[in-house]
Amino acid sequence: LQERLGRPGTRMLDRLRQAQDEDGRVDADDLAQAAGEFGWPVAAVTGSATYYADFAEGRRGRRHVRVCEGTSCLVSSQGQHIARLERALGVRLGECAADGSVSLQGVRCLGYCYDSPAVLDGELPASGETLGGLFGDPLAAQRRTRPGWVEPLKMQAAQIPYASAVERPVVLAGLVGGEEPWAVWPSVVAAGSREKVMSEIAASGLRGRGGAGFPVAKKWSMTAGEPAPRYVVGNGDEGDPGSYGDRLLMEHDPHRILEGLALAGFAVGARHGLILVRSEYPTAAERLRAAVAQARQAGHLGKGVHDSPVDFDVEIVVGAGSYVAGEETALLHALAGLRAAVRARPPYPTSHGFLGRPTAVNNVETLAAVPWIVRHGGAAYARLGHPDEPGTKLVCLSQRFRRPGVYEVEFGVPLRHLVEDLGGGLREPYQLRAVQVGGPLGGFLTPDQLDLPLLTRPLTEAGAALGHASLVAVDSTVPAAAILRHAWAFGAAESCGACTPCRVGTRRGIELVERLGGPAQAAEVLADHEPLLEVLNVASLCAFGRGVACAVRSLLRVYASELHQATAFTSNRGA
Ligand code: SF4
What we know:
Elements: H1 2-5, H2 12-23, H3 28-38, H4 42-51, H5 53-56, E1 63-68, H6 71-77, H7 81-89, E2 102-107, E3 119-121, E4 124-125, H8 128-135, H9 138-143, H10 185-191, H11 194-204, H12 216-224, E5 231-236, H13 245-252, H14 254-268, E6 272-277, H15 282-297, E7 313-318, H16 328-335, E8 359-363, H17 364-376, H18 378-382, E9 385-386, E10 389-390, E11 392-397, E12 405-410, H19 415-422, E13 432-437, E14 443-445, E15 470-475, H20 480-494, H21 500-514, H22 519-539, H23 543-558, H24 560-565
Parallel strand pairs: 1-2, 5-6, 5-8, 6-7, 11-15
Antiparallel strand pairs: 1-3, 3-4, 9-10, 11-12, 13-14, 13-15
Helix pairs in contact: 2-3, 3-4, 11-12, 11-14, 13-15, 14-17, 20-21, 20-23, 21-22, 22-23
The protein binds iron/sulfur cluster.
């Protein structure tokens, strides 16, 4: 890329953000200027500027408010929060006031699903007082007393009971044990061997925690087997509505992620690591950057770390609003400042990754588990969890639960344990109708399916999958058609557009929902879903299109009786 286009673009998105900060928008002059600075064609810069939601939304106001359109927020307000916010701010979603005073952006998830509905006012979560004013809801004011209300989290041994509360969601991502970070890195660079680190990871059976569950040791050894220079990348683009464990990890335990990335770099022989953090998580990006600076000062990162021959440094790159950027080939494009479009594989990133070089991409939760494994041994980690899937997983419970929060649990525990013992069931007066697992690419389960074990493999015949392990409780007050439209609307909004089945099919799905109008139309609408889902499932280029199809299919089964009676649902407010 450097040879073809000029300077590598890890700073391109920052450059466009800077232009936007200066006068609220990215205009043609900004594009030409950025292209000149980076030695890129203007068309390439324009491609990025028009792809990412942060830039494509248009002009920003002096006060920029982001409101969550995720599933937990839809459930918590029955989709009413966006309309109420529009009225309170005097501006429509996606628009900026004529005088430039305020703009309102819809975001598919802000990562505050334990305290929905969520709003970011500038860079910080809206305070309770602000929310109370915006929503006209005195309860909202009581709910949060100040911005940035999440206290620094204390690491605890991962033992029951997993205390949790709205104010302090619990992160136990020591993972298990919670020792101080950077405990193992100095001894590894001083006396460790790559083979030893690799063999402990292989013995642990650690798989990627982002949702795909690919064996980490295999990915690392494939990367290590390719010629240098190689890269390691942390995926902090947690976009799944319902998931917020990565955000809390990045905000409250950034050094553990950095140590995991450093160990990954050591194992594959990389001297450079990058972490992509989504722009919806500004505090996470800020704390990771601060942690990198601290780690450099402490000698953990840089040239000749801890007086060893090992060089390793980390760069934090902030995205600009794209769900699909969480897919690893799209993420590599985003890191390079390009449109975050998926590309066909092979070649895999392990041979053709960042800037065309061999790259191991791992989710930040996966990386956070690495220091514990290297310190305690892979065998100790493998003793945790399920025979089919060792280790632990962070699971996020949504606002409708009595005890929402992040819980670290061993693989194989029944979902009912999470819903009833840890989450405490639903808060009064709500009745559980369904649980959405794994976000919009996961699926829906009925309350009588909760004895299934927590595993990455498909949970049901309909293909409901654990994904990044969010559990969003959907109560019986939420209309089935609203949930169905929400699922299709997410697909249409976040499809990267690279393949027709997904780009067009998700829009066809919305049209189908809009035809619902009682029993006569419902049978036809539901029957018309089948061929559409089949096309999405077999012909989509990446897991996004297939995931949308699986999630919708499981939703149709869970809500079959309601959907046969459903009338049209055309609101675009939160659904
Ligand atoms: Fe892009 Fe969707 Fe095709 Fe994946 S399935 S490549 S997200 S258009």
